[in-house]
Amino acid sequence: MKKAKIYILLLVGLLSSANLLAQTDSLTFRGTIVNDEYQVWFDIDFYNQTVLVPNQEILGELPGYMGAKRDPRKWLITSAEITTPTTARLEIINDYGSEDLVATLTLQADGTYVLRQVDGSPLRIVVNRKWLKLPKNLVLKRKK
After folding, report:
1. Model pTM?
2. Number of C-beta neighbours around residue 113 at 10 A
3. Largest CB tally within 10 Å, which of 9, 92, 117, 140?
4. Whose CA is closest to 63, among 40, 75, 46, 76?
5. Looking at residue 97, what DSSP letter applies?
6. What burial class does residue 140 get, using C-beta atoms within 10 Å of its C-beta: 0-12 exposed, 13-18 middle, 19+ buried?
7. pLDDT tens profile 17-40
8. In this structure, are strands 124-127 and 113-120 parallel, antiparallel, or unpaired?
9. What is the phi-psi region of residue 140: left when phi exceeds 0, alpha when psi lies from -120 to 50, beta otherwise?
10. pLDDT of 81-106, one tens digit each?
11. Whether 83 contacts 118, CB under 8 Å
12. What is the 8-class DSSP label of residue 127?
């Protein structure tokens, strides 16, 4: 009878610890992440999807957007699906709606994020009146 109780306690402990590991951190995909080299940032909230794009509030609440210091245009995240605790699948369009792409955003073990463009138009910003394509794999870090 004592062995049965021990097994039951072990089973309950195992199940509760597995449940804790399966929960996602509610800050993983919320906040501002930046790339200093290209001077771009993402304001995101994939959980509540309540981000308003500055000066474009008419678009309503979104999962997020990408902005750049040297370019007033924005890239809008129209859809964000968290596929694993550290990865999200994104659908992104420019603010005119003429270009779109699919990307993944992954939190790495070192705390950085990698935005990987999977399909569609390249992310571009204007720098000194010329288009600059952002790399297919853009490394970002959480803003302090």
Report:
1. 0.81
2. 22
3. 92
4. 46
5. S
6. buried
7. 444 444 445 789 999 999 999 999
8. unpaired
9. beta
10. 999 999 999 999 999 999 999 999 99
11. no
12. E
